[in-house]
Amino acid sequence: MNTPSQAPLGFLLHDAARLLRKRFEQQARHLGLTRSQWQVLAYLSSNEGIHQGGLAELLDIEPITLVRLLDKLEAIGLIERRPHPTDRRVRLLHLTDKARPLLGSARKLGDATRAEALQGVSAADRETLVRVLGLIKCNLVEACERPAAFHDSQRDSAENG
Amino acid sequence: MNTPSQAPLGFLLHDAARLLRKRFEQQARHLGLTRSQWQVLAYLSSNEGIHQGGLAELLDIEPITLVRLLDKLEAIGLIERRPHPTDRRVRLLHLTDKARPLLGSARKLGDATRAEALQGVSAADRETLVRVLGLIKCNLVEACERPAAFHDSQRDSAENG
DNA sequence: CGCATATAGTAAGCAAGCTTATTATATGCT
DNA sequence: AGCATATAATAAGCTTGCTTACTATATGCG
């Protein structure tokens, strides 16, 4: 087992993301926004009028996860769900006027938090980081859609008769 | 706002970590372990007998978060809390015999999940990724200990009043 | 037209991570 | 000895992310 400073990639990635969220949320307390709420608003601002399933897909999260986030954003008056003109299953999502000034503040906060995180990291390393994380994300989105390739002794027994 | 494939670093890091955990947990269902439980066991296996506060510090998580994880690990028989010989506040943590075979399986699963995630990523890029994530983590651990530098209009008013 | 299948959204429940707060115990100073 | 301060562990409550399951509605085929 490596020492903590040489933790395996999985632990390191998780820790970095967790701490980045913790720091962002410390800084964002006064806005009343969490990290995930901010990400939803950010994606919605570029996709006004999208339906819930579509936004969940863009965010690569399960629809039920988005429902919870939207419930809260709706409760604090930052988004509204509107009915679809012809399909009664669908709700279309819009930012409210209250949300728009928050977007600028949250973006600045995100920039400041990113700057804190990236101190001492060269521009070349940042570029590599973003490129590789993008590749990792794509790989995992695909992997999550494949069945798990684990050994299930119960299933193995059944298959072997 | 960038397109999702060009998401800012914060969103990308969060998504990559979330999907890595999702994939690991898909693969690890049969072990009955979650990603965070596995990380606790991994760190504990290199620090047998450490107390809770010490382990939380190594993991860079809040003590209450570790308590929850330990409660579950204890309930499924993978760790035990022992009293300290002389300090009645402290509990010392040990892996049980039941845990040890699981560590090997979980490590293999972690390796396989990491390989899925890193397909198409060169060795040089992996090295850069680990080094930069380590730096980011260190930066954020320090940043989280500093007070948030946000504009609190209430506080500002009080200070200017 | 009727029905099987698919899609959109949501309920329940669990895990993990945090903030805030509390209790029990130890330490160190006067 | 007494008490203020610090430390270890934990309770309550919230958010987020998932799995499993459900309801309402739409679609397409025979």
TrEMBL record, chains A, B:
GO terms for molecular function: DNA binding. Coiled coil: none annotated. InterPro entries: HTH_MarR-typ, MarR/SlyA-like, Tscrpt_reg_MarR-type_CS, WH-like_DNA-bd_sf, WH_DNA-bd_sf. This is DNA-binding MarR family transcriptional regulator. Residues 6-138 form the HTH marR-type domain. Keywords: DNA-binding, Transcription, Transcription regulation.
